[in-house]
Design goal:
Chain lengths: ~350, ~350
DNA sequence: CATGCGACTACAAACGTTTGCAGCAGAACT
DNA sequence: AGTTCTGCTGCAAACGTTTGTAGTCGCATG
């Protein structure tokens, strides 16, 4: 029922191959002929069938985007940026959700493999070896984890964690808890490593609570553990957990930041909406989405090229972090005025 | 390079048609033969090429999902539910973002038309006639707007608006502002209609401010207009605008709910995170996503069947709504205890 | 005048499937 | 014994494109 290339050929009195070339190789066909063809195509409402094209060219002009949890506020900006960027280059995006499950993740890559030109694997829960294996089935770009031999885009979350710890120590905190993220997360390991090092360097104590699922509920659930740890500040794996923690502390009558300071990571839309507004490490998610698309489209063919893009993070100081018990000098209330998200908005 | 059906046929010593049937019509092939074929396929890591299959069957097993703004917290739960539901039925989901632009929307439907079995059009900004026209190109299911002659799933947002207004009037408010949503939104018209009617019935005044873009910024931007209107309560088009408004009011030293009550719509994840927690109308977004997929898969073929699924909404009373100036009786602070989101969590 | 070239177009094979049809063996009827 | 039926399998066409090759024409070149 829908118009095919053959209909257009008939209507414009040329061979199908000419019609094809009128679209995909304009310089090979007479300007006049081409005009006729395009007119006829327009008339018939012809749109090329991408499946047929894919069958012969081997390129589908589709990209798969696999995330751990669409509803996690970290991902929508990334998805949005990737989709828009991809569409600008005439690619469409499959989006799929693994529910934080490595098994589902693998199944999804395999299922998508034949109908995409590549897959963007965001915050994967699989092992490196699993990922490497899958990369033989379909070009992969990994986001939020470096995988040896594969193109990847990561955020310099270690630097973010370091800044956060230094910020807290600077405020007078000597005993800090790290509210850990999910097992198997590279980001989590990275944060832990950097935070531990930064704490030791600064002469502070760091107690790790976790691993935990990266959810708000999980943040709330660890409130008692945090209190028991007797710390005066907490660095959470992400904003979601930080928010959950603040909430639970609030319920227990513990004041943030007066009694405990809390710092998140990601600078999601949430962080400006909580009371107190969340001090957090801004990660450039939209830029990551675009970069991942670019990498995939670049070496779509020359597979197994190593390439690692590292995006910078920065500390956004708001209201959830305040002076600790060991403050040595400086004004009473806070070291720096709140930036009110300015930093995160100028960041692109 | 990747294994094709022919490789499997060769490896198992049968004809390709037998291999094909071993997968798609198991009852037509001998159990033993089938076992051989499946074993060979497994051995070779064979996965059928969906493009080739689509070419001949005419069904791609793909669905397009078009939303106005992925980053709007209303959509991720819907996307997530739709994706998971679709995948359970062996369908994959294209997700695309129109940036609230009707032109982009149309272009997207057209672009997707040939490579999907149908499109889920969420909160469209196009006109009904445009949508009807497009439905001749590809099966459509519309979400958040009824379109005559097309399957659609809507939320009974009118009822929600009514409940919200009655709630406010019950609290003693006699002058209420409606912070309107985007032009061209059916939901917006519906809310306006229902709110106006409910206000008149209850003997209260309703002043409409808008239309406005459905964003947080837009909510903030209208704070002065709200104050000028001299109302004691506001019903916002969605949570996002409500949150923006509360924020701006806070900046101006206006207390919510003491001086002005604010009610949102959607019960997004945000609403439990604001201080005060937002009183809002819960819309079943996940259920809507699933229902839309179901409708599309049901009458994928017998097009142009009218069918309208209406999902119920409910009022979730939290802390952003309080007594108004004309309270007649009852305890001082509030009429009902906050539900703390229980209602919205039990709702599925 | 023959040759070669450039610009354009037609032909046909191929991509990896599905599916109507025909064939064939053996079983079950008459 | 002949016929019909049943269960299974092979054959080949088709889906809508792209693309290498070959052909045609007119024209400039030698």
């Amino acid at each position: 029922m829908p118009a095919t290339i053959r209909d257009v050929a008939r209507a414009s009195g040329v061979h199908v191959s000419t019609v094809s070339r009128a679209f995909s190789a304009p310089h090979l066909v007479n300007t006049e002929t081409r005009a006729h063809v395009l007119a006829a195509a327009e008339e018939l409402g012809y749109r090329p069938n991408r499946a047929a094209r894919a069958l012969i060219t081997g390129r589908t002009h589709n990209i798969g985007l696999i995330v751990a949890d669409i509803a996690n506020p970290f991902f929508p900006p990334l998805i949005k940026a990737a989709e828009s960027h991809a569409r600008g280059r005439d690619y469409h995006l499959f989006v799929a959700d693994t529910n934080e499950d490595a098994g589902v993740e693998e199944e999804l890559v395999l299922a998508l493999a034949k109908q995409v030109d590549g897959v963007l694997l965001c915050s994967p829960r699989m092992s490196n070896t699993q990922i490497e294996q899958l990369s033989r089935e379909v070009p992969l770009v990994v986001v939020n984890r470096p995988v040896p031999g594969l193109p990847a885009v990561v955020m310099d979350v270690a630097q973010g964690a370091r800044l956060a710890v230094e910020h807290l120590v600077g405020l007078g905190h000597r005993s800090i808890a790290l509210l850990g993220g999910p097992r198997g997360s590279w980001t989590n390991r990275e944060i832990r490593r950097a935070a531990t090092l930064a704490a030791r360097t600064a002469g502070a104590e760091l107690v790790v609570i976790g691993p935990n699922p990266p959810t708000e509920e999980s943040g709330s659930a660890q409130a008692d553990a945090v209190l028991r740890a007797g710390v005066s500040a907490v660095l959470a794996y992400n904003d979601l957990m930080a928010v959950g923690l603040i909430d639970a502390l609030d319920h227990r009558g513990v004041k943030v930041p007066d009694q405990i300071s809390v710092v998140g990571i990601d600078d999601t839309a949430l962080s400006r909406r909580t009371r107190p507004m969340l001090t957090t490490v801004a990660t450039p998610t939209a830029a990551a989405g675009r970069a991942a698309v670019d990498m995939l489209l670049q070496h779509g063919d020359d597979r197994r090229t190593t390439a690692l893009v590292t995006l910078q993070t920065e500390l956004v100081i708001r209201d959830s972090s305040g002076p600790g018990p060991h403050r040595t000098a400086g004004p009473g209330r806070r070291q720096q005025p709140p930036l009110d998200g300015v930093a995160s908005e100028s960041r692109e």
